[in-house]
């Protein structure tokens, strides 16, 4: 089989705890796969969502987003209502669909975020603050939210709240 003229991708192993980590909206987001590793096909982010944490209502105009719950539970926006989903559940939000998720529980939730096509990890890198072990994340202030609104437009995301 010839690979002449094609970019050859290599097998990757990203160990537990590895990958750039950012505080975004009070969640800890670890970028496991970015555009560069997938030829722009997929972004994969592991997210720790504290009780009460999550995202504002938003729409992606460039990519679809899927959320796979590894631990805990989430409340996700479905047809205007928040619906609870637990570990082992997958929720897919097609491009252009208003969506949101929140952790309604009393324990941290652990989820995987999948974006197709890739590229949305750049939003996390720009809006997030790097995680420093042993230090609490920055407060989600009105100034932070206003900045997130401005930056999101650059990445084809519209934040409703």
TrEMBL record:
It comes from Streptomyces flaveus. It comes from the Bacteria. Transmembrane segments: none annotated. Residues 48-114 form the Cupin type-2 domain. This is Cupin.
């Amino acid at each position: 089989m010839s690979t002449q003229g094609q970019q050859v991708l290599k097998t990757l192993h990203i160990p537990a705890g590895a990958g750039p980590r950012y505080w975004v909206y009070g969640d800890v987001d670890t970028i496991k796969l970015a555009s560069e590793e997938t030829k722009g096909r997929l972004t994969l982010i592991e997210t720790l969502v504290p009780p009460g944490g999550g995202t504002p209502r938003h729409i992606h105009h460039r990519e679809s987003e899927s959320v796979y719950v590894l631990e805990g539970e989430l409340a996700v926006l479905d047809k205007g209502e928040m619906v609870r989903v637990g570990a082992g559940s997958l929720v897919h939000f097609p491009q252009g669909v208003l969506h949101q998720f929140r952790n309604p529980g009393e324990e941290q939730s652990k989820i995987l975020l999948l974006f197709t096509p890739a590229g949305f990890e750049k939003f996390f890198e720009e809006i997030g603050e790097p995680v420093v072990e042993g230090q609490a994340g920055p407060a989600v202030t009105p100034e932070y939210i206003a900045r997130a609104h401005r930056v999101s437009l650059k990445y084809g995301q519209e934040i409703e709240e």
